[in-house]
């Protein structure tokens, strides 16, 4: 089919859908026509026809939804969403006026609310509604506890789409600061969680000049108060700071450094460290929050600005043989840090056995820590492990050139075992996928590096992908281990 004929087909489908939506009563196959229309416009980057009539028809039906209970309004909204993405925004505003959007946001019509949110999300320029009351209404919806979860998700998508605009950020964070502070200082859990999500979205685009400590920082005193109130608040706070660290860990030389934020985060890290150190005094923290604390400690270890993780370690975490969570820490802390400060512990815990897999996978991801323990890696010890555990380890090692070199030069038996599958019956899907990923990782290295192993590895991967080995896995056959 030529490009011109494809375009004609899409135009015909759009027109057919429009005619059907204008028919009274609606045809019984209207949902099928909407599905067909959606399929054909989903990947368009621009419109081959004027979409104004179709958009107006959808708007009219969203207003009169009660009349057609069989009409799939969710499907209609999806069609509308894709039209909004490809239609010129001035056309959109001709159909959805400011008054229409405002009326939709204060209506009880879920479909209308979703359509209004989508229009705001796709606004061009992004600040076009910044001086209007629309964002005030959006915030009111967001912090109304009974608002449908799907609408909450769409509001958060709207924030993500527009948060980089200075005027929008000013409308939300400055004009509505009293609203946000009132929630921060006394809201129920659900709205407190929503407030933290909103802040985590906007803080990504905040610079030092516009950073508002009163808004963005939950102080040690506030944390202590909320821990006493409900442990779920504490979990939400940890997640908030964890998301903030995600932004700090993005390695992008084109962005302005945000290391200035450390002055605000240092007291928070200390508080979290104190709660970990005193975990036996806080039963709920020990029972419910350790995994969340570990997650943020891991990120701090990778950021480690001003040696902040080393300070945490010395004063609160105490990574040593007596720490009951030492295996956990060795499994997630930046291996570069572990190499520099805990090399003796690394060597002690780097045994090649299933119970140490999480530690091994972490340590091999850094060349220095790998070199410190590489003598522990022998083909004999690796092959003693169950096959799945072998693949768990090799999948990680196959990602790093220095590990691959070591395997090639000192453990070629491992590659022979990987290639010579010999019809071994492995029923665990994860094991099969790990083996495939390991081979795929390996063949992405230079042919010169892999040498004579390159061709058999490629052949084996082709067998897995195209000769039905995965399809032949039988769910009732017992696992066999090498």
Question: How is this fold's topology laid out?
Answer:
Layout: H1 3-22, H2 30-41, H3 52-63, H4 73-86, H5 89-95, H6 98-105, H7 110-121, H8 134-142, H9 149-162, H10 166-175, H11 177-186, H12 189-203, H13 213-216, H14 220-229, H15 231-248, H16 262-277, H17 283-288, H18 290-303, H19 308-317, H20 326-332, H21 335-341, H22 343-349, H23 357-363, H24 367-373, H25 379-384, H26 387-397, H27 401-410, H28 412-419, H29 429-442, H30 447-450, H31 454-466
Sum this structure up briefly:
With 482 residues, the protein is mainly α. It is built from 31 helices and no strands. The longest helix has 20 residues, at 3-22.
Overall radius of gyration? 29 Å
Q: In terms of quaternary structure, what is this? A: single chain
Measured by DSSP, the beta-strand proportion falls in: under 5%
What is the terminal separation in angstroms?
A: 53 Å
Number of strands: 0
Mean pLDDT, as a whole number? 91
| Residue runs with pLDDT of under 50 for 5 or more positions | 468-482
The level of helicity is 55-70%
Structural class assignment? mainly alpha
Overall geometry: globular
Largest sheet: none
In DSSP terms, counting alpha (H) and pi (I) runs of 4 or more, how many helices? 31
GO molecular function, one term: protein folding chaperone
Main location: cytoplasm
Subcellular location: Cytoplasm
InterPro entries: HSM3_C, HSM3_N
Question: Could you explain the architecture of this structure?
Answer:
The protein is mainly alpha-helical and 482 residues long. Among the domains are: 1-95, no CATH class; 393-482, Serine Threonine Protein Phosphatase 5, Tetratricopeptide repeat (Alpha Horseshoe), CATH 1.25.40.580. 67% of the residues lie in helices and 0% in strands. The chain has 31 helices and no strands. It has helices at residues 3-22, 30-41, 52-63, 73-86, 89-95, 98-105, 110-121, 134-142, 149-162, 166-175, 177-186, 189-203, 213-216, 220-229, 231-248, 262-277, 283-288, 290-303, 308-317, 326-332, 335-341, 343-349, 357-363, 367-373, 379-384, 387-397, 401-410, 412-419, 429-442, 447-450, 454-466. The radius of gyration is 29 Å and the shape is globular.
């Amino acid at each position: 089919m030529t490009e011109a004929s494809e375009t004609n087909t899409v135009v015909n489908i759009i027109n057919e859908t429009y005619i059907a939506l204008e028919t009274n009563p609606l045809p019984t196959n209207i949902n099928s026509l909407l599905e067909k229309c959606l399929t054909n416009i989903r990947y368009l980057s621009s419109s081959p026809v004027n979409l104004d009539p179709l958009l107006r028809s959808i708007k009219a039906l969203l207003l009169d939804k009660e009349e057609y209970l069989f009409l799939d309004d969710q499907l209609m909204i999806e069609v509308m969403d894709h039209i909004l993405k490809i239609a010129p925004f001035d056309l959109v505003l001709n159909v959805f006026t400011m008054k229409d959007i405002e009326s939709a946001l204060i209506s009880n019509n879920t479909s209308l609310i979703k359509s209004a949110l989508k229009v705001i999300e796709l606004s061009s320029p992004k600040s076009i509604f910044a001086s209007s009351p629309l964002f005030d209404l959006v915030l009111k919806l967001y912090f109304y506890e009974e608002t449908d979860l799907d609408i909450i998700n769409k509001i958060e998508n709207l924030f993500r789409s527009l948060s980089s605009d200075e005027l929008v950020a000013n409308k939300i964070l400055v004009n509505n600061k009293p609203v946000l502070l009132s929630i921060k200082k006394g809201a129920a859990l659900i709205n407190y969680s929503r407030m933290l999500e909103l802040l985590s979205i906007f803080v990504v685009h905040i610079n030092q000049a516009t950073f508002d400590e009163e808004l963005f920082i939950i102080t040690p005193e506030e944390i202590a108060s909320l821990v006493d109130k409900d442990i779920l608040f504490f979990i939400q706070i940890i997640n908030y700071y964890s998301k903030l660290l995600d932004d700090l860990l993005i390695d992008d030389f084109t962005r302005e450094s945000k290391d200035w934020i450390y002055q605000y985060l240092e007291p928070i890290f200390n508080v979290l460290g104190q709660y970990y150190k005193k975990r036996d005094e806080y039963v709920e923290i020990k029972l419910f929050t350790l995994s969340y604390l570990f997650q943020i400690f891991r990120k701090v270890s990778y950021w480690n600005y001003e040696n902040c993780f080393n300070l945490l370690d010395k004063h609160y975490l105490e990574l040593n043989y007596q720490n009951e969570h030492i295996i956990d820490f060795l499994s997630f802390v930046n291996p570069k840090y572990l190499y520099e400060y805990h090399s003796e512990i690394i060597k002690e815990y780097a045994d090649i056995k299933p119970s140490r897999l999480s530690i091994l996978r972490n340590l091999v991801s850094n060349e220095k820590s790998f070199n410190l323990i590489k003598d522990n890696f022998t083909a004999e010890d690796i092959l003693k492990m169950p096959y799945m555990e072998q693949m768990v380890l090799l999948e990680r090692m196959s990602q790093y050139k220095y590990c691959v070199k070591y395997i090639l030069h000192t453990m070629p038996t491992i590659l022979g075992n990987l290639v010579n599958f010999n019809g071994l019956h492995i029923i665990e899907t994860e094991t099969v996928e790990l083996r495939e990923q390991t081979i795929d990782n390996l063949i992405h290295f230079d042919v010169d590096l892999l040498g004579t192993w390159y061709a058999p590895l490629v052949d084996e991967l082709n067998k897995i992908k195209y000769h039905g080995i995965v399809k032949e896995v039988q769910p009732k056959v017992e696992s066999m281990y090498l």
